[in-house]
Amino acid sequence: GSNFKLRTDADVEEVYRLGPALGHGGFSTVRLATHRETRCKFAAKVCCFVIIPLPPRGSSTNKYNCSRSVILREVDVIQRLEHPCIVKLHEWFVHGGKLYLIMDLLAGGELLDEVEEHGPLTERQARAVFLQLLLGVQHMHSMGIVHRDLKLENLLMERQGDLASVKIVDFGFAKKCSSSSEECLTTVCGTPEFMAPEVVRGSSKVRAMLEGSPAASDSFTPYNAACDLWSCGVILYMLLSGQAPFRSSSHPRLLRRILAGHFSMEGPAWKGISPEAKDLVAKLLVVDPHQRLTAAAALAHPWMKGSGRRGGAVG
Ligand code: ADP
Ligand code: MG
């Protein structure tokens, strides 16, 4: 955004009062932050640097982004995005070996908790949530950014119980991938249950583990933005049924199921769910990334327009 600010010379605690933790991730703690002057409330994502030499005074932020640790990539990526379905970064601080991202406060909590507490959504609710997810994904992909860690924990509501206020967070794994048609990503990352087969398959280490032979070299087969649409398929499956499409207590078996695209939409959890909804899930959970729907194609799917059989108000 245009009013985007980097503060490397200021102590975050002089500007914001940091309150209790709102959530924890693998790499960070997110705390309530109250602006001391305006009293406005934000969320501060606090990440520790391993080694982070401060840039010389007067050096451009751009140069700083390019030349420093991976952790700064999140800032580099998120500052390019401006969309109602993506969390907004207001300013950021580097202070005392830590990075502080001052973001919108999304006080409604994770969609994961919503589904775990209240069970599956109605089709109408799921459609409202999924529309926001797809719009956010379409925007980031149009900006050449792949999220790579889309999951229910990374979809937050701005207001408690308001399913129309969903925003995508956590660009910690996100990467620039300028061409959507070319395979330009090589790192295996993400959360297994939500990981696309081409991401799983990409690692020779994973291949070796599944085949029971040692890895010849640690090579990767590149993949692209389509991996986010697989994760969207996993998310839609979970919103509708309350269950994960790929689950197993054994890690290799889980990965094998993902690679084979083995999932089921039978059983009591899927009873009464419209064929259109199942069709959209099936067109996202497609093993071949080239055959998988894009965000734009998913937005144009009949289910996104239609009215589900299982009604109910949104929110
Ligand atoms: P990590 O990169 O370490 O996974 P996240 O960005 O996913 O960190 O944040 C970790 C958790 O903190 C989230 O799952 C969520 O519960 C909470 N959180 C993140 N961003 C916000 C926010 N803007 N407002 C409120 N809570 C947030
Ligand atoms: Mg996270």
TrEMBL record:
ATP binds at K45. Residues 16-304 form the Protein kinase domain. One of its GO terms (molecular function) is protein serine/threonine kinase activity. Keywords: ATP-binding, Kinase, Nucleotide-binding, Serine/threonine-protein kinase, Transferase. Belongs to the protein kinase superfamily. This is Protein kinase domain-containing protein. It comes from Chlorella ohadii.
